[in-house]
Amino acid sequence: MMVESLMEMPPSLLDVLAMRLGAEWGHINAARERAQAKKGELRPALTGFDSEDTSIVVFGSLARDEFTEGSDIDWTFLIDGSADPRHLDLAGKADAIVKKAAAKDRGREGTFGTMAFSHEIIHQIGGQDDTNRNTTRRILLLLESEAIGRPDAYRRVVTNVLKRYILEDRGFVQGSGGYHVPRFLLNDFARYWWTMAVDFAYKQRTRFGEGAAIRNIKLRMSRKMTYVSGLLTCFGCHLKIGDLTGGPDCPEEGAEAECIDCLRGRLKRTPLEILAETLLEFDHLEGTARRLLTAYDGFLGILSDSGKRGHLEKLAEEQYEKDEVFREARRLSHDFRDGLIELFFDERSGLSDLTKNYGVF
Amino acid sequence: MRLIGFSTGALAYSDFRRGLAIIHGREIHAVELSALRQHELRPLVEALDGMDLSQFSYISFHAPSEIRQEDEEAVVELLLWVTGRGWPIIVHPDAVHDFSRWRRLGDLLCIENTDKRKRIGRTVEELSSVFRELPDASFCFDIGHARQVDSTMTEAYFILKAFGGRLRQIHVSEVNTRSKHDPLSYGSILAFREVAHLIPEEIPVILETPVPEEEIDLEMQRAIEALPLCQEAMLAR
Questions:
Q1: CB contact under 8 A, B158 and A261
Q2: Contact state of A2 with B125 under an 8 Å Cβ cutoff
Q3: Structural domain of A12
Q4: What is the DSSP letter of B151?
Q5: Over the stretch A98-136, which tens digit does the pLDDT of each residue have?
Q6: A residues 48..67 contacting B (CB < 8 A)
Q7: Lower CB density within 10 Å: C or N end of chain B?
Q8: Is the CB of residue A83 less than 8 Å away from at least one CB of chain B?
Q9: What residues contact residue A337 under an 8 Å CB cut-off, 6+ apart?
Q10: A7 in contact with chain B, both atoms CB, cutoff 8 A
Q11: Which CATH number fits the domain that encloses residue B26?
Q12: What is the distance in angstroms between the Cα of B124 and the nearest Cα belonging to chain A?
């Protein structure tokens, strides 16, 4: 249970889905290979920076296996143990290594590239002290993160965060109500999604439109994808998707640790893998699967094209409507949105009921 | 009501006679005779015939935690003699050099899960490989070690689920970051409660906490709080 190795990694469900559909998503595959190569490069370079009490955790496109040539690298030095003044030095040195390995500097919010303490992440869920930064770290820790190197601290923090969401959700643990969905967890995923959407407008204003086009497209695609994977994980408990045990009697009384472990295992997968797992469950959604993954592949294709990416990074807001690259990206995002609507409002799978009950009111 | 007792080694370092004297006459009916260092083993074994152990309804025997390879056969021979009394022999798996020697102890060989310094016996996976070598062995669950290895108590849960059928005894203490035994804190009590429902009432509990004589009753009370019985455990969680 302690050592997290590649041997534990489940087979790629995206590959299984592609095979079933006879599809080939070249940009997704290339981004995944690039991510794995980059993680392979970082691992030896960062060896020795982590310990039983500290983990180097990557987030964003690298953790999602959607790494492109122009991607930055979001990471934190996660501390779950005694505070030590030397942690700052370690984080600084590790950051220098990560920066060298990245194509460009990461975002300027200061959420990543430094120390993060488990206490805030675990204890401050909701309330005045749950800052934007803390919410971001916590939710992304669940939805798109990976420990590079020693996973001990990372694993404990993820488990303890999930413990809070599950054990403090009376309705879920006691199995009351017609649906079996971890609502506390789902609500926080939803809150994070809306926070990202609102922050988009905030950044647009405070940065005077700089970088707004690329952030717009990412919000419509990769950020939305992260939220989608959170929703599907929570709905999966009711629908018993994939290896989720699920059902109204889950978790059995006294077996909450199994539920937490099950969710942790599920969330270890990338958002695309979680989407693929759900799509594999329902044969009648093959058309939807094709639509969603083709759109997403196109999106990664744009990000992988340094010319197009650079163009979007500099594009001014007043040029959106006439700009070919932006219009192409927006068309893909509309396909993706429509595919998601098909998926989440599908009656036969039961997703429609769950979406109405948990996603709307 | 759980049967709760002490390890002689916890009450008196390296001095089983003193440890026994401390609990003599108290309402304590379980004891673990401890020979944690190899040089303590023979004197303890030779003293067994002369000991008054009549107050105890449960007795176990802790084998040395480190055994020189060249002495392993002799150690096992001594312990085999102890098993004639029907007492479980608590053994750290990392002390074993040759599993085949220890199989002779049958189900009285009681393998303990280890603290985080060790390279075997800490997790379900590591314990599984030990029990593959010792299929008849029983299990001493050290809840303090399990918490030190994984403070979320997830590993503790899965260890009890996997090896509950072999469970013979519980070791209770707080194990600090230096892997030393400490008296129970409220934090460890709360953590232990999370898996208390997986520990049947009839399994004896041995405290390994080094407490002064005047705190023995208090420490036993803390152990009761830490390991409420099944129904109470569910309510306490």
A1: yes
A2: yes
A3: 6-360
A4: T
A5: 999 887 777 767 778 889 999 999 999 999 999 999 999
A6: 52
A7: N
A8: no
A9: A220, A224
A10: no
A11: 3.20.20.150
A12: 7
Q: How many domains does chain A have?
A: 1
Chain A residue nearest residue B127, CA to CA: A1
Has residue A108 been placed in a domain?
yes
Nearest CA-CA distance, residue B122 and chain A, Å? 9
Alpha-carbon distance B62 to nearest alpha carbon in chain A (angstroms) = 27
CA dist B118 and B120 (Å) reads 6
CB contact under 8 A, B155 and A1: yes
Q: What are phi and psi of A15, to 5 degrees?
A: -65, -40
Among the listed residues B65, B107, B71, B103, the one whose alpha carbon sits nearest the alpha carbon of residue B86: B107
- Is residue B11 predicted with pLDDT exceeding 80? yes
A1 in a domain, yes or no?
Answer: no
pLDDT tens digit sequence for B158-208: 999 999 999 999 999 998 877 788 889 999 999 999 999 999 999 999 999
Residue B106 C-alpha from the chain's centroid = 17
A74 pLDDT higher than 60? yes
B154–A2 C-beta distance less than 8 A: no
Give the per-residue pLDDT at A283: 94
Looking at the structure of chain B, the number of domains it has is 1
Q: Read off the tokens for A268.
A: 């270890």
Q: What domain range includes position B97?
A: 4-236
Residues A101 and A38 sit within 8 Å (Cβ to Cβ): yes
Q: Is the pLDDT of residue A7 over 80?
A: no
User: C-alpha distances in angstroms, A102 versus A89, A97, A112?
Assistant: 20, 9, 14
Query: Which tokens hold the place of B107?
Result: 């189900």
Please state the pTM of the whole predicted model: 0.87
| A3 min Cα distance to partner chain B (Å) | 10
| A78: its two tokens | 């996660």
The two three-digit tokens of residue A334, written as one number: 């509309």
Which residue from A minimizes the CA distance to B237?
Answer: A254
Which chain A residue shows the shortest CA-CA distance from B235? A254
Q: Describe the crossing of helices B154-163 and A256-267 by its angle, rounded to 10 degrees.
A: 120
Contact A156 B124 (CB under 8 A): no
- CA-based Rg of chain A, rounded to a whole angstrom? 20
Cβ <8 Å between A257 and B150? no
